[in-house]
Amino acid sequence: MPTTLNEQQETIRKFRSIANFLTVIGAIDYTHIRVKKVIADGGQLYINRKGFSSINGQVVCDADLKIMDIVTRWRGSVHDSRIFRECRLKQRFEAGAFSGILLGDSGYPCTPYLFTA
Hints:
This protein is an alpha/beta fold. 24% of the residues lie in helices and 30% in strands. It contains three helices and five strands, in the order αβββααββ. The protein has a five-stranded mixed β-sheet.
């Protein structure tokens, strides 16, 4: 994630040039990374809503599609809103570390720093 105010303003400027988003600093989404079927106890927790074993990965990218933040430690059955709720990035937004907002889909909660579609 951009750390200095100048880096944040440059990221916001790039999003503005794409779709006239005024204060967007990143786009957030998740994806399922397929893994071999887990046989051990708790293996069913890796089964996602699509029915296959996976790790759930949360990614934030900038306007150039560069990955700025990634979390890949959750089993496939975990919902993306929980991943965000418990990630360090959320804590940083709540602490005021960023001057912009994130854009996400309806799987995420709408907050003052995360707008959803």
